[in-house]
Amino acid sequence: MARFVELRRHTDNDGDVLTPDGVAAALRLGTRLAGGYRVAVSTGAQRATQTVGCLLAALGQPVPDGVVVEPGLRSQREDRWRALYQEAGSGELEAMRSADPAFVSEEAAALGAALARVLGRLGDDDRALAVGHSPTNEAAVLGLTGRLVAPLAKGAGVLITEDQGSFGVEALDP
Question: What is the 3-state secondary structure (H, E, C) of 70-139?
Fold first, then answer.
Protein backbone atom coordinates (compact mmCIF):
# COMPACT_ATOMS: atom_id res chain seq x y z
CA MET A 1 0.00 0.00 0.00
CA ALA A 2 1.14 3.53 -0.76
CA ARG A 3 1.92 6.50 1.47
CA PHE A 4 1.84 10.12 0.28
CA VAL A 5 3.53 13.39 1.21
CA GLU A 6 2.36 16.62 -0.36
CA LEU A 7 5.46 18.81 0.02
CA ARG A 8 4.86 22.51 -0.64
CA ARG A 9 6.85 25.71 -0.48
CA HIS A 10 5.57 28.45 1.83
CA THR A 11 3.76 31.39 0.24
CA ASP A 12 4.98 34.99 -0.08
CA ASN A 13 6.89 36.26 2.91
CA ASP A 14 8.79 39.21 4.32
CA GLY A 15 11.55 37.77 6.46
CA ASP A 16 10.06 34.91 8.45
CA VAL A 17 6.45 36.19 8.34
CA LEU A 18 3.91 35.79 5.54
CA THR A 19 2.89 38.98 3.81
CA PRO A 20 -0.83 39.78 3.54
CA ASP A 21 -0.61 38.48 -0.05
CA GLY A 22 1.08 35.33 1.25
CA VAL A 23 -1.73 34.74 3.76
CA ALA A 24 -4.36 35.30 1.06
CA ALA A 25 -2.54 32.95 -1.34
CA ALA A 26 -2.27 30.22 1.30
CA LEU A 27 -5.98 30.55 2.12
CA ARG A 28 -6.90 30.27 -1.58
CA LEU A 29 -4.62 27.30 -2.03
CA GLY A 30 -6.06 25.60 1.03
CA THR A 31 -9.50 25.46 -0.57
CA ARG A 32 -8.02 23.41 -3.45
CA LEU A 33 -5.95 20.89 -1.50
CA ALA A 34 -6.61 17.17 -1.78
CA GLY A 35 -7.18 16.88 1.97
CA GLY A 36 -7.45 13.70 3.98
CA TYR A 37 -4.15 14.40 5.75
CA ARG A 38 -3.11 12.29 8.72
CA VAL A 39 -0.54 14.87 9.81
CA ALA A 40 0.68 18.30 8.79
CA VAL A 41 4.37 19.15 9.04
CA SER A 42 6.30 22.41 9.24
CA THR A 43 10.04 22.98 9.23
CA GLY A 44 9.58 25.12 12.32
CA ALA A 45 10.16 28.39 10.49
CA GLN A 46 7.33 30.82 11.19
CA ARG A 47 6.58 31.32 7.48
CA ALA A 48 6.21 27.55 6.98
CA THR A 49 4.08 27.07 10.10
CA GLN A 50 1.93 30.07 9.19
CA THR A 51 1.40 28.63 5.69
CA VAL A 52 0.38 25.26 7.17
CA GLY A 53 -2.10 27.02 9.46
CA CYS A 54 -3.66 28.98 6.61
CA LEU A 55 -3.85 25.92 4.34
CA LEU A 56 -5.56 23.82 6.99
CA ALA A 57 -7.91 26.63 8.07
CA ALA A 58 -9.14 27.01 4.50
CA LEU A 59 -9.32 23.25 3.96
CA GLY A 60 -11.58 22.88 6.99
CA GLN A 61 -10.85 19.20 7.65
CA PRO A 62 -9.54 17.55 10.79
CA VAL A 63 -5.93 16.40 10.80
CA PRO A 64 -5.87 13.50 13.31
CA ASP A 65 -2.18 13.77 14.25
CA GLY A 66 -2.17 17.58 14.21
CA VAL A 67 0.63 19.87 13.11
CA VAL A 68 4.16 18.82 13.99
CA VAL A 69 7.61 20.26 13.41
CA GLU A 70 10.27 18.28 11.56
CA PRO A 71 13.30 20.55 11.97
CA GLY A 72 15.36 18.29 9.69
CA LEU A 73 13.38 19.63 6.72
CA ARG A 74 15.07 23.01 7.30
CA SER A 75 18.74 23.37 6.54
CA GLN A 76 20.99 24.72 9.26
CA ARG A 77 23.07 26.23 6.45
CA GLU A 78 20.60 28.60 4.79
CA ASP A 79 23.32 31.22 4.27
CA ARG A 80 25.32 28.72 2.22
CA TRP A 81 22.25 27.93 0.10
CA ARG A 82 21.79 31.66 -0.60
CA ALA A 83 25.45 32.05 -1.53
CA LEU A 84 25.29 28.95 -3.70
CA TYR A 85 22.30 30.40 -5.54
CA GLN A 86 24.45 33.43 -6.39
CA GLU A 87 27.44 31.27 -7.39
CA ALA A 88 25.33 28.99 -9.59
CA GLY A 89 23.37 31.89 -11.06
CA SER A 90 20.25 29.80 -10.79
CA GLY A 91 17.76 28.22 -8.40
CA GLU A 92 18.05 24.95 -10.32
CA LEU A 93 19.36 22.26 -8.01
CA GLU A 94 21.45 20.76 -10.83
CA ALA A 95 23.26 24.09 -11.30
CA MET A 96 23.86 24.33 -7.56
CA ARG A 97 25.09 20.74 -7.52
CA SER A 98 27.55 21.57 -10.30
CA ALA A 99 28.85 24.54 -8.29
CA ASP A 100 29.29 22.60 -5.02
CA PRO A 101 28.58 18.88 -5.40
CA ALA A 102 29.73 17.89 -1.91
CA PHE A 103 27.52 20.47 -0.17
CA VAL A 104 24.41 19.62 -2.20
CA SER A 105 24.97 15.90 -1.75
CA GLU A 106 25.40 16.21 2.02
CA GLU A 107 22.38 18.47 2.40
CA ALA A 108 20.22 16.32 0.10
CA ALA A 109 21.03 13.24 2.19
CA ALA A 110 20.11 14.98 5.46
CA LEU A 111 16.96 16.61 4.07
CA GLY A 112 15.93 13.36 2.36
CA ALA A 113 16.29 11.53 5.69
CA ALA A 114 13.94 14.08 7.29
CA LEU A 115 11.43 13.54 4.49
CA ALA A 116 11.72 9.79 5.11
CA ARG A 117 10.85 10.44 8.78
CA VAL A 118 7.68 12.20 7.64
CA LEU A 119 6.77 9.16 5.54
CA GLY A 120 7.58 6.95 8.52
CA ARG A 121 4.78 8.63 10.48
CA LEU A 122 2.25 7.33 7.97
CA GLY A 123 0.39 4.06 7.62
CA ASP A 124 -0.98 2.51 4.46
CA ASP A 125 -2.83 5.02 2.27
CA ASP A 126 -2.12 7.87 4.71
CA ARG A 127 -1.26 11.37 3.50
CA ALA A 128 0.86 14.11 5.02
CA LEU A 129 1.02 17.79 4.15
CA ALA A 130 4.47 19.33 4.64
CA VAL A 131 5.52 22.93 4.09
CA GLY A 132 9.12 23.98 3.67
CA HIS A 133 11.44 26.08 1.60
CA SER A 134 13.21 26.24 -1.74
CA PRO A 135 15.75 24.89 -2.70
CA THR A 136 15.75 22.63 0.35
CA ASN A 137 12.42 21.02 -0.57
CA GLU A 138 13.93 20.12 -3.94
CA ALA A 139 17.06 18.80 -2.21
CA ALA A 140 14.90 16.67 0.12
CA VAL A 141 13.17 15.12 -2.89
CA LEU A 142 16.55 14.41 -4.47
CA GLY A 143 17.87 12.88 -1.26
CA LEU A 144 14.84 10.64 -0.79
CA THR A 145 13.99 9.66 -4.36
CA GLY A 146 17.10 10.41 -6.39
CA ARG A 147 15.02 12.64 -8.66
CA LEU A 148 15.62 16.27 -9.56
CA VAL A 149 12.59 18.55 -9.55
CA ALA A 150 12.33 22.08 -10.91
CA PRO A 151 12.50 24.98 -8.45
CA LEU A 152 9.20 25.36 -6.62
CA ALA A 153 7.33 28.63 -6.90
CA LYS A 154 5.80 29.95 -3.70
CA GLY A 155 2.85 27.72 -2.79
CA ALA A 156 3.77 25.09 -5.40
CA GLY A 157 4.80 21.61 -4.45
CA VAL A 158 5.28 17.99 -5.30
CA LEU A 159 3.34 14.90 -4.38
CA ILE A 160 5.65 12.11 -3.33
CA THR A 161 4.22 8.63 -3.44
CA GLU A 162 6.04 5.78 -1.72
CA ASP A 163 4.89 2.25 -2.43
CA GLN A 164 7.02 -0.60 -1.09
CA GLY A 165 10.23 1.39 -1.46
CA SER A 166 9.47 2.76 -4.92
CA PHE A 167 8.88 6.49 -5.31
CA GLY A 168 6.78 8.61 -7.61
CA VAL A 169 7.06 12.40 -7.81
CA GLU A 170 4.37 14.59 -9.34
CA ALA A 171 4.44 18.39 -9.64
CA LEU A 172 1.64 20.36 -7.94
CA ASP A 173 0.69 23.90 -8.93
CA PRO A 174 0.21 26.66 -6.36
Answer: CHHHCCCCHHHHHHHHHHHCCCCHHHHHHHCHHHHHHHHHHHHHHHHHHHHCCCCCCEEEEEECCCHHHH
